[in-house]
Amino acid sequence: MAFDPQFLLNGVIVGSTIALAAIGLTLIFGILDFINFAHGEYLTLGAYAALVANVALGLPFVVAAVVAIPITVALALALDRVVFYPLRREGAGALSLLITSFGLSIILRNAVEMVWSSDPRRFDVGGAEAMAIAGVRITAVQIAIVVVSLVLMIAIHLLLTRTTLGVTMRATASNRSLALSSGVNTERIVTWTWVIGAGLTAIAGVLIGLNTVVRPSMGFGLLLVMFAAVILGGIGDPYGAMLGGLSIGIAQEVSVAFISASYKPAVAFTIMVVLLLWKPEGLRGADT
Amino acid sequence: MSDDGLLEVRDLNKYFGGVTAVDGFDMTVERNSITGLIGPNGAGKTTVFRTISGFHDPDGGKVVFDGEEITGKPVYEIVEAGITRTFQEARTFPEMTVFENLLVGKTGHRGEKLLPTTAGPKAYAEDERAAVEHADQLLGYMELAEKRDQRADRLAVGERKLLEIARALMTNPDLILLDEPMAGLPSDLTTDIVDYIERIREERDQTFLIVEHDMDTIMNICDSITVMEAGQTIASGTPEEVRNDERVVEAYLGEESA
Ligand SMILES: Nc1ncnc2c1ncn2[C@@H]1O[C@H](COP(=O)(O)OP(=O)(O)O)[C@@H](O)[C@H]1O
Ligand SMILES: [Mg+2]
């Protein structure tokens, strides 16, 4: 059987959304040194915020998607204030933060299910008719997903390299006390990182909901894949997260050409483990 | 206090659990001076630095800078007030370029505020441009211009020390605290650093407070020296006075025989 490029295309679509969500996860890790288990729920909440705006309030889809960003960001900031900041101030270790975020993840997921039930929902949007381009089927929506993801990744690159805010974020991730003695208000950088991380994750949630369905477990279901992307790329490294997300998405979807789709997660993790055995520093580790 | 030192440290105390690291320490740093802080290992010099720069809250006493009490303020506010420090082992952001290392020390950090555009995008852009210019000017001044786009971890040790000083200057300080700036340097590089410190003091109107083990260097470069032992000030004065002080001689003899 000849290889069908359709699988590769699907991989790029799925991979670019995973990459987007993984950037947020890895940025927060870089600054706060803990893996936020509730990150998947931020993705879910982003999708539901857009869903409510789009389906319940009848706003055009694009407007609803934009509205979801500040809502998710506000939620992430509020949770940081109420939950993570007090722990941080008391000098809680990474393990306490991790377990706390795990609890938060469960609470948020159950809350979403209580409010919206576990039924899968869809956005009210057109553009679902597939076109055939160069032998692959793609919808306008899928093109938009890839374009939006790529544009955002480029924007993140420009932010991190071309602005003092971005440089300061990288500095804070690299060495917090040195950033402090350079005059950086590191708590403000933490706030910025939540804003950017949660904002990207909200968009990822909307795009994933658009490509498939919106359901309470969507973020949690992707959490392990996001972890894999982050670890594969070298933890704390936003470019690594992009590369890791794309690689894992493509690997998962291409694997469907050879084995049953129900083994997708196993494929993702097999790749992660093999790559880590080969390159323990992550995909981008070699040049450091 | 009636004297008008740039920095006044009065009756400073700092404990770590049962350990008394700083015990009623006093010192004055005169404006535009190069002042030395010396003492045997474990005397509390680094702790004094950490407390002045806001990394530790003192358990007693106060720090007055330029007439304003700064005791216990957060680090970034102390930097904004005009005090910056370097670290005992030259610290850099290793995976960032030399130029980016400097940008971190940009003062004001308008870009860091949540709503940078409240001042207007034009003011923001102007701010960014000024920071770039300032960084490039300092790279020229510290003779690091060719290394501008190299990663900091590719620098030689002497260049890393210069980068640290440049990053400190980027915050527009009035007082620079240097913790063992000559540590681990061969003697020709030590001379270079001394030259830079003297030049920066003259040309940029800076004040330095230096902790250093190399006695020849300290005696040679400082206008005034404070000696501490076991967390307390045991002497202060000109290098000449301090060198001949009985308690100082004793403290150092003690260290040598230890
Ligand atoms: N963070 C800390 N926790 C516990 N003890 C400390 C800490 N920092 C310094 N000390 C103790 O305080 C004393 C002074 O240390 P330090 O300020 O590093 O001296 P110096 O720089 O003069 O060699 C030492 O006894 C040291 O062990
Ligand atoms: Mg020391």
From TrEMBL, chain A:
Q: Which InterPro entries match?
A: ABC_transp_permease, BCAA_transport_permease
Give the transmembrane ranges: 12-35, 47-79, 140-160, 189-210, 217-236, 256-278
Its topology with respect to the membrane?
Multi-pass membrane protein
Keyword Nucleotide-binding present in the record's keywords: the answer is no
Please, one GO biological process term? amino acid transport
Q: Which Pfam families match?
A: BPD_transp_2 (PF02653)
Task: List locations, semicolon-separated.
Answer: Cell membrane
Lineage: superkingdom: Archaea
Q: Which CDD domains match?
A: TM_PBP1_LivH_like (cd06582)
Tell me which GO cellular component terms the UniProt record holds: plasma membrane
Q: Which UniProt keywords apply?
A: Amino-acid transport, Cell inner membrane, Cell membrane, Membrane, Transmembrane, Transmembrane helix, Transport
> Is the keyword tRNA processing in the record?
no
| Family recorded in the similarity comment | Belongs to the binding-protein-dependent transport system permease family. LivHM subfamily.
The name on file for this protein is Branched-chain amino acid ABC transporter permease
Q: Which organism is it from?
A: Halorubrum yunnanense
TrEMBL record, chain B:
Q: Which domain of life is it from?
A: Archaea
- Database matches in SMART domains: AAA
Give every ABC transporter domain span.
Answer: 7-255
Under the heading InterPro entries, the entry gives: AAA+_ATPase (IPR003593), ABC_AA/LPS_Transport (IPR051120), ABC_transporter-like_ATP-bd (IPR003439), ABC_transporter-like_CS (IPR017871), BCA_ABC_TP_C (IPR032823), P-loop_NTPase (IPR027417)
Q: Which GO terms describe its biological process?
A: amino acid transport
Name the UniProt key words of this record, in alphabetical order.
Amino-acid transport, ATP-binding, Nucleotide-binding, Transport
Question: What GO molecular function terms would the record report?
Answer: ATP binding
Any coiled-coil regions, as ranges: none
What CDD domains does the record tag this protein with? ABC_Mj1267_LivG_branched
Family per record: Belongs to the ABC transporter superfamily.
What the protein does comes down to: Probable component of a branched-chain amino-acid transport system.
- Supply the name of the protein: Probable branched-chain amino acid transport ATP-binding protein LivG
Q: Organism source for this protein?
A: Halorubrum yunnanense
Give the classification, highest ranks: Archaea, Methanobacteriati, Methanobacteriota, Stenosarchaea group, Halobacteria
